[in-house]
Amino acid sequence: MRRLLDGLYDTAARLAALFLVGTLLSVLAGIADRYLNLGWRGTDAYAGYCMAAAGFLALAHTLKKGEHIRVTLVLQTVGPKLRRALELASLAVAALLAFAFAWYCVNLSIQSYDFHDVSTANDATPLWIPQIAMALGTAVLAIAFVDELVLELAGRRVVVASDEMLHNE
């Protein structure tokens, strides 16, 4: 099961990386269109869709790698029992909120499909297409929070601390 979940998070991260490349290509296409007057429309919108997809698909992998912002000011001052209780409570609330977010993102995609909702930009893209990445990313994030909660309950959770705060300028 561990390999399956880690594979899910890594696959979402790889998709996020591909969408970052898509953002770059869309921006470059827009620049080329401005200089060469190629008639390509909607490149700005597609860059935005790719950027949003990259952000949402990277959420779970970022969580699992310990790169999300954690405010540990309170956790550092309490004892181990209270710290564990606070961790469990925060993970449970986070999982609940992530599932609610995923639920509404999936419903938004379905409604956009049902109502034939299209982008107001000049690309007129059906909005359910870029919304799929948002729904998928939030669903994987919800799974990641449940994974963290289960690991914490089992006493096997390792909190990966980013070394970012060690780099002072």
* Helix/strand/pairing category: mainly alpha
Largest sheet: none
Order of helices and strands: HHHHH
Q: Could you state the oligomeric state of the chains shown?
A: single chain
Strand content: under 5%
Number of helices: 5
Distance between the termini: 41 Å
The percentage helix is 55-70%
- Spatial shape: elongated
Q: How many distinct domains?
A: 1
Low-confidence stretches: none
Cα gyration radius (Å): 20 Å
Quick check: average pLDDT?
90
Query: How many extended strands?
Result: 0
Would you kindly provide a written description of the structure presented here, covering whatever features stand out?
The chain has about 170 residues and is mostly helical. It has one domain. The chain has five helices and no strands. It has helices at about 1-35, 45-55, 60-65, 80-115, 130-155. α1 runs antiparallel to α5 and α2 runs parallel beside α5 (about 130-155). It starts with a helix and ends in a 15-residue tail after the last helix. The model has no long low-confidence stretch (mean pLDDT about 90).
